[in-house]
Amino acid sequence: MDDAVVARFAEIVGESELLTGGRISEDYARDESLTCEPRKPAVVAKPATAAEVSALLTTAAGHGVPVTARGSGSGLSGAARPREDGLLISFERMNAVLEVDAVNQVAVVQPGATLAELEQKTAAAGLAYTVYPGELSASVGGTVGTNAGGMRAVKYGVTRNNVLGLEAVLPTGEVIRTGGKTSKVSTGYDLTQLIIGSEGTLALVTEVIVKLYPRPAHSATLLAPFPDLDNVMAAVPRIISSGVAPDILEYIDNLTMAAISHNEKLELGVSDEVRDATQAYLVVGLENRDRDRLDGDMLRTAEVMSELGASDVYVLDGGGARKLIEAREKAFWAAKAAGADDVIDVVVPRSEMPGFLARARELATAAEGGVVGCGHAGDGNVHLAIFCKDAAKRHKLLHDIFAAGIAAGGAISGEHGIGQAKKDHFAALEDPAKLALLRRVKQAFDPRNILNPGVLFD
Amino acid sequence: MDDAVVARFAEIVGESELLTGGRISEDYARDESLTCEPRKPAVVAKPATAAEVSALLTTAAGHGVPVTARGSGSGLSGAARPREDGLLISFERMNAVLEVDAVNQVAVVQPGATLAELEQKTAAAGLAYTVYPGELSASVGGTVGTNAGGMRAVKYGVTRNNVLGLEAVLPTGEVIRTGGKTSKVSTGYDLTQLIIGSEGTLALVTEVIVKLYPRPAHSATLLAPFPDLDNVMAAVPRIISSGVAPDILEYIDNLTMAAISHNEKLELGVSDEVRDATQAYLVVGLENRDRDRLDGDMLRTAEVMSELGASDVYVLDGGGARKLIEAREKAFWAAKAAGADDVIDVVVPRSEMPGFLARARELATAAEGGVVGCGHAGDGNVHLAIFCKDAAKRHKLLHDIFAAGIAAGGAISGEHGIGQAKKDHFAALEDPAKLALLRRVKQAFDPRNILNPGVLFD
Ligand SMILES: Cc1cc2nc3c(=O)[nH]c(=O)nc-3n(C[C@H](O)[C@H](O)[C@H](O)COP(=O)(O)OP(=O)(O)OC[C@H]3O[C@@H](n4cnc5c(N)ncnc54)[C@H](O)[C@@H]3O)c2cc1C
Ligand SMILES: Cc1cc2nc3c(=O)[nH]c(=O)nc-3n(C[C@H](O)[C@H](O)[C@H](O)COP(=O)(O)OP(=O)(O)OC[C@H]3O[C@@H](n4cnc5c(N)ncnc54)[C@H](O)[C@@H]3O)c2cc1C
Description:
The structure is a homodimer. By secondary structure, chain A is of the alpha+beta class. Chain A folds into 4 domains: 3-90, Uridine Diphospho-n-acetylenolpyruvylglucosamine Reductase, domain 2 (2-Layer Sandwich); 97-214, Uridine Diphospho-n-acetylenolpyruvylglucosamine Reductase, domain 3 (2-Layer Sandwich), CATH 3.30.465.10; 218-331, Alpha-Beta Plaits (2-Layer Sandwich), CATH 3.30.70.2190; 339-433, 2-Layer Sandwich (Alpha-Beta Plaits). In chain A, 36% of the residues lie in helices and 20% in strands. Chain A is built from 16 helices and 18 strands. Chain A starts with a helix and ends in a 13-residue tail after the last helix. One flavin-adenine dinucleotide (FAD) binds next to strand 3, helix 4, strand 10 and helix 12 of chain A. Chains A, B: Keywords: FAD, Flavoprotein, Oxidoreductase. Chains A, B: This is FAD-binding oxidoreductase.
């Protein structure tokens, strides 16, 4: 990169907030994707305001410098991995929760604020931002970038359903505002929704207005072992149609449960006998502002699960429940520690989960590999750890699993995004007419193709 | 229009399904906007399949023929009013509810199906499509076009929150599918969301996958007169934060209540004395699968309203409730019958409603006109009937009211859209950088500008 350009970047954010060479730590070279090799950027800039972001983008556009946005780098698709010749904009200094507005039940947040920080600030007001991906160190901007989901999505929806407005800087330098503190709007194309999930390729987000919910006073967690995976899957729609509105509805297969139990020293009170006869577990979270109603919902849910073949139903106490949920959230680390070669998150219609899982296992066996997993069962979002050392075989296996998901009416990713890790599969499997349209939309935002080139498509 | 082009259109849909000249009825010339003069199109085509829609668009694109899509023509912004030199595509024959899928809680619907039809089909399965704008003759395609809202949006969200996938024909003729029977996806830009609310300017929708909810067994409606509008507005966030999750939360000002009561012969049991001391009413709908829980929620809601200054709280029986809700839905016709010159639906943050309403009244008085209204109070969506005969004054009044809404953090329209009726105001009040971006997005979809030119922007 030209020295004059670097100097200009330094002028914009201040010398101390611009990193080059040895001052760039390894962290900036990667996210948590298992397959994207770390790659350090030429420059890291840490702006403090939207105006600085705008100046950075204008300069980058003028000199054809590729720009990657980074929140906390906890993404799983390599979408925050910078270009060697590029500028990485880290939002770590724009990390304030600017406002928790209890009357409108919204918060106004800078993109670098973490979900953990937002959780703390909203809890103080008796409210909650209900997007809880497994990693609460994730930044709000990053969750907008990937349209993050997580366990509570089964009740509250994903990021897309909980972001009402944005301030964003276009690659052409203009700062725009979309949406607002309102839950609906029909006034032109919805740019909020278009930017959400665009993985830093359309615009950089400098402020986010999120929707908050009242925090129910009471909650409970049920754990049910099932001898048969198909029965788990059959129980899911039944629980949903019962009207109890669980806020967590996760399945965990026996291998994953063994791994996370071991890693996190879980004591669930499941007897060896039951455990050995179990193919998968269902974890159901319920919450209510009223204790009696919660008890009623627990009873009803336990009944449904027993009817549908659960060998037992355990009611976990607060501490036990928290440990199980945390362990489930760490399933990714367990898979990584076990030597998983990739982790994917295909989404399919709920009804298609059993068929899709069976097919994925067949394909893995044929490729001399294996798949194990857990997932947001209520959303049909299956997280699979892929074990298959041979890169070429693994590529084909992934292709076939993604194709099976699409054939079942689903998509390659439910919440992690395409990033750099899955773009070849996206290019190979997506309808060419749609891909061409996506590229034209990209072009409408970013005529010089400076924002995250190489992410989503080449 | 060239005879050869007309002949080609007839070939595509069949002679009997192509209307020209005297065979085109008045209905096709307009929607329900109060300000857009009727205008007959050159040709009306009634396709039966996506392939026919595609062929129509390809032909239209080849000859530069402007194309307007029409559902039921109940829109309020003139967005379905065709061009004199154009083709109107009426979706009346593509009106099947193709599937009600109880396991995935979705329905697959053709665009011409009415909400009334969908209501009937889903009710039979114990499920509901929860988008209920005031006019159930509206088509599903039309509600996608405008991102329709309605009363239940306070609990269930608007069309945008309840459509999971689309089949759509691009103006370039390609038929694409977006989303699916899944509640989440992070696989490229969200074209479903981009097409929703685009008022027929980006793509024509030929199939819609909508989300369904279990239909709660019990419901109740409360009516509370308030001596002061500000107190009504103060009660709204309190009811929402109480956690009772009302499915209806409407305010009706005293003049509107008088008009709809008179037109629909409502007997609400409100004494003359209370009525005369009332500035506005709050209507709260509650529902639950459990009768006792519903009763508990009613009590709690009544308490909140009494605390906040309601002069009384009436519990309406089933018949009375239905009549009131129906009458509220007909507020538009009451306004029209009373000689309203326009009806608008500004949306503002809930907290800004009192200030915005006061400002709108001031502006109307200054313009020697008047405003009365009702609205989706839970959403900050204010429906105002505008009385102001002088066209130039009215134009300025609307401009000022829209500007006041935007200044309060809101937008010109919460659910009716911009269409042809409000595009001048949109052009005058929207950020030029955003307008330019919207135009580039339009261009990405519709390079020849054949889809609904003159809607949203000129
Ligand atoms: C253990 C573990 C568990 C996880 N569980 C879940 C889960 O349950 N559900 C889920 O959805 N995800 C999960 N994730 C993935 C990850 O937490 C999410 O993808 C999250 O959204 C990433 O946030 P981040 O701040 O780390 O983003 P980053 O990785 O820094 O960036 C993600 C994307 O957003 C873009 N971006 C960042 N900031 C901005 C900005 N200001 N403007 C525009 N674009 C921006 C980046 O360019 C990149 O494309 C998990 C990850 C881990 C490690
Ligand atoms: C009495 C009354 C009460 C109302 N109450 C409400 C309310 O509470 N909430 C609310 O939101 N609205 C309300 N409306 C407005 C109206 O019902 C909605 O705007 C509805 O969405 C229009 O549906 P339609 O089928 O009549 O659409 P149309 O008027 O036919 O078309 C509306 C738009 O959608 C486009 N369109 C139609 N079909 C397609 C397709 N297949 N593909 C792409 N674009 C298409 C059209 O081109 C146009 O831009 C009310 C209207 C009336 C008359």
